User: Fold this.
Amino acid sequence: MTRLLFACAAVALLAAACGGSSSSSNTPAPTRSSPTAGARTSAAGTTPAAGATSAAPATATQYGATVEVTGIVGIVNNALNQLNIQHLSGVNVRKISVDSRTSIKRASGGSLTLAEIRPSDRIIAQGKLNDRQDTLLATLITVEQVVQGAQPGG
Assistant:
């Protein structure tokens, strides 16, 4: 009899500790799907250690966030200091704006000017979105230039 009482008490204690009850119910126990208040979740979905912070990944909807786009140059407009690109990955923009603070580098090393970028060059551009989120205001552009003769008509 003592063993039976001990077993019932143990089951009740385990059920209470797990958030369930010893009574039979068709309603599942509630689950907690979000971290505790004040905790931030990293991009991998885990909660960082105490005192650590994590930045959310940049998306096209975050005005002013530093973002990146990869694409193929279509048109170089020196008069407007702008590149039109065919978007490959990253934020979904088709125009990249360049100013005096923009650093333009070759993938193989060295620097370039906007006038030296050609259609069909591959680029990776980093910067901030404008307020309409249709143009990237570039701070850094890395260019992989197409070899002359490798493009049609070259």
Observations:
- Residues 2-17 form the longest helix (16 residues).
- Confidence is low (pLDDT under 50) at residues 30-60.
- DSSP finds one helix and six strands in the chain.
- The first strand starts at residue 66 and ends at 77.
